[in-house]
Structure formats: structure tokens, C-alpha cells
Amino acid sequence: MTSAEECRRQFPDDPQILDNVRLLRRVPPWHFVRDDNDGCIRPSSAAFMDDRDGDPMSVYRQDVIERDGGEPGRVLANHRGFGLVSILASQVRSKNQTVHSDPVPEESSHAKVCGPKPRSTRRWLVRRAEWVFAPRRA
Amino acid sequence: MPGLVNAVDAGPGVLAESLVQRRLSTTETVAAAGALVAPLVRTMSQESPRRPIRRIAIRASRRDLPEGLVHALERACELQQLPRGWNSYGAEPVSDTAFRRAIEFLTAYVVRGIAGPVLVPTVRGGLQIEWHRRGVDIEVEIKPDGSVSWCAEDRRSGEEVEAVLTGHEETVREWLRRASD
pTM value? Predict the structure, then answer.
């Protein structure tokens, strides 16, 4: 799923997801990289690739989690060692991505971020992502 | 794999061997004498009730391998053990082709004087090799089929480059020198 047109057709942007909604993305420990330029541990741009077989990138809506009375950390349950980053819906939309609500049985806040993600876009996203749960060594 | 073990001369290359073996309980790593002149990587799996045991042999011809290279090789071996779904979103395991290509790249480019990189897996079974230092960001992506592309950015000058590796080998080396002490 790389074409913006396909994304608009198959994973249309949901205007009910406001621009200020924080989208959460799990980051596996293998994607933590030391950035000496910024003096921090941050996710690799590889953490913002689409999922396997071009399936759009999965995220979790913080607004839905909070509406349920939950905490962002619930999406890290059973994912020991993982980190969690957030990025605003407005930020991903500004890079030609749709934000599509996609609740699944195990997580009502699940959503998809669909659109072409060339390296420049992934690197742009990485620089704007903020840790919600940072790795312990960060 | 007795044949492989017998073929290996446990000589000066032991440095690489011991460092890689230390972290990989399910991996037997054998380094033959020498610095990684022409990398030879053999991987093979055998049935096990728990999971396959993979044997990785890296031939080296010198004892004084750059530490950054040894750590990168160690990391590559570690990442190759990741199971399907390692990122919780259905990621593919690192392909043998990408792994071998990564070893070739590392041994050719991470020479003495070049800083050690960070290696990360990609969701489709590739590997990404990164440097983020001295105001420079470099990413080399090795796809599951072994094709290699790279990009680099100098944060101070704003200069950016993105290309395939073939035909740009010397440019990549220049950027790596820029990111190194």
C-alpha cells in the first residue's frame, strides 16, 4: 500500500480523528538507536515503515484509550522491553498520510496511518515523535 | 557440522569469534585466521526440538579487527535470530540474503578509522545500518533481496544525498569518513 490514491480509497482519512489527537506507535527494542547528534536514544526511521506486505502502519489513538478510562501504557501489555512514541495526527497528515480508525477485538484504539513512506518521510516522522515510554537507557 | 569446524584454523581470528559467541547462546560462530578480507559467511540450520541451531562462520585474516566492525557483526548475528513478528506487527525475519550482504558491506566499509554503526532490522526482512554522529546522519538500507540504497544528511550544511550503492561507493566512503573521528 504505497499510493496515496489507494490509501484514500481503502483507508480513508477519518475527520473525526482530530488533528490534535496523539497517535501511539510501539517501538521494539531492536529499533532503539543512539543518536550522538541529539545526545539521545530515539527510534530508527525503520520503526515507521509500513507493516508487512504493505499493510499500512499501525498506531493507537490516545483519545480512544483515554475515553475508555485507560492509560497509553496498556498498548505495551505483553511487550516487554518495547518503547512507545506519540505523534500528532496533524503531523502525519501533513506528510500525505490518511489516519483511518481500525478497531480490532484486542484494542479498540487501533488505527492505520496510510500513505507513501519514503525514507525522507520516515526520517521526518522520527524527528517529531516523542517518547511516551522511553527505553530505560534513554 | 564437523566438516566446517575442521576446516577452520582457530588462529588470530578468535577475537571476532569470542565476541560474537558470547551473546549468542544458540549460535556457534567460528572465525578462521585472518581479518575479514573476503568475508565468507556460511549459515545452516539443523532441526531441534526447540528452534533451529544456526552456525555462522566468518573468516578473518587479522587479529586487530576494528572494534566497531566486531560489534556490528555481533549485532548482525543477533538480529538474524529474530523470529517472525519480532516487532509485534508481523515483521519478517532477516533474510539470509540481506544478512550476507550486510556482512559484505560492513567488512568493506567499516574499516579502521571508520566509526562503528548501529544495525536495525526492517519489517520486510532487511537490515538498516546507521550512523548518527558528528552532525551527520547516514542510513544504508539492505533490502531482503540484497539490494542496497543509502541516504546521508549533514545537519550543519543541510546537504542531503540519497542513492543506490552501486556507482556511489566512493561517495559513501567519503560520508563515512565525515561521520568518523
Answer: 0.82
